[in-house]
Design brief:
The protein has about 350 residues and is α/β, with parallel strands linked by helices. The protein folds into two domains: about 240 residues, Aldolase class I (TIM Barrel, Alpha-Beta Barrel); about 80 residues, no CATH class. Helix content is about 40%, strand content about 15%. It has a nine-stranded mixed sheet with strand order 6-5-4-3-2-1-7-8-9. Helix 2 packs parallel to helix 3.
């Protein structure tokens, strides 16, 4: 679960990437699909005008966003003008020297970059030399950026720190993740049971409990999260290129009853709410999932199941809302008003 709060607008401007990791959830590195700079700037302008204060951070993920460095710089500069923070996730393949790393990250820091994230694990190291990752991390630290280094492993107990080096690991946030069976990892024995992890749906919820990572894909799809499995998340709330209103898309995400349950409650609560109205619905076995994000993908990856869940939640929402109101000690008049919403 991520500790940070607030909403982030995250652009995935390209699927292109210099790496070909065997666990990549989006093995489309040769794709020419991309978000144009004008599209990203237009969306940023629209949201800061129509829902001011809703977005706190503008981020970039990939693919490899540094392949579109000038676009990243331009969008971060515009975001900073609106008082928004900046974040970038990169493989660090471009950091061929310490000087190059400092020059590029300094340029982005001046544009508004506050957080730099990169990867370090055996698969990434097949494509990006460790010294380049260390160049980028060192430069980011020198510039005062917050740094996260993530590793994705096949075995519990493996760690980023052991690969990155304790000298840098002690200064950054190290995230040790396990492979999820999507994309190139389909068929790998990547389940919570195999990893020896708890599989209690009551303990599983969204990785972002407070706020949303509102992800814009290269094809214009807008998703409510930017988790490891963002490419297989079936919960698409709209598409910018299909003429869907950007403000309405974002408001639908932030007001979603489904997302509220997954963030503040759990999958167990979701199932209980749905079962009251759809008792015969079949649910996947959590033990066969890789974790909460993988389970979410399995639950909603079935279109018929997802439809039943959303219809059942619509029926369950009024009673749930009243229950929360009673717990908060609201008056009967307020409860009656809520019942009519």
């Amino acid at each position: 679960m991520r500790p940070d709060s607030g909403n982030a607008l995250v652009f995935k401007p390209t699927r292109a990437c210099p790496a070909r990791c065997d666990f990549c959830c989006d093995p489309s590195e040769a794709s020419r699909e991309r978000l144009r700079r004008t599209e990203m700037l237009a969306l940023l302008e629209r949201l800061t005008a129509t829902v001011p204060g809703l977005i706190g951070t503008v981020g970039f993920t990939g693919g490899e966003p540094f392949l579109l460095f000038d676009d990243v710089q331009a969008v971060l500069e515009r975001a900073a003008e609106s008082g928004l923070g900046g974040a970038v996730v990169s493989s660090s393949h471009w950091a061929t020297s310490r000087a190059e790393a400092h020059q590029r990250l300094s340029t982005l820091a001046q544009a508004g970059l506050q957080r730099y994230s990169t990867s370090c694990d055996p698969e990434h190291l097949r494509f990006v030399p460790l010294e380049r990752i260390r160049h980028a991390v060192s430069a980011a630290l020198e510039l005062g950026l917050a740094v996260t280094v993530t590793g994705t492993f096949a075995d519990p107990g493996a760690s980023v720190a052991a690969l990155l080096g304790e000298d840098l690991a002690a200064q950054v946030v190290c995230e040790d993740k396990l492979i999820a069976p999507f994309g190139r990892a389909v068929g790998q024995a990547a389940t919570a049971r195999r990893y020896g992890l708890p599989t209690d749906p009551a303990a599983w919820g969204c990785y972002r409990r407070l706020g949303h990572d509102i992800l814009v894909q290269p094809n214009g799809d807008v998703l409510p999260c930017c988790a490891t499995n963002n490419t297989i998340n079936p919960l698409v709330f709209g598409n910018l290129r299909a003429g869907d209103d950007p403000t309405e898309i974002v408001q639908a995400i932030t007001r979603s009853f489904l997302l509220r349950v997954l963030k503040f409650e759990s999958f167990a609560t979701l199932r209980a709410l749905v079962t009251a109205h759809a008792p015969d619905l079949e649910w996947p076995d959590p033990a066969h999932a890789s974790g909460p994000c993988g389970y979410c993908a399995e639950v909603f990856g079935d279109v018929e199941r997802a439809t039943v869940i959303l219809e059942a939640l619509a029926q369950a929402q009024p009673a749930y809302r009243q229950q929360l109101a009673r717990q908060a000690g609201l008056s009967e008049a307020t409860l009656s008003a809520l019942a009519g919403l």
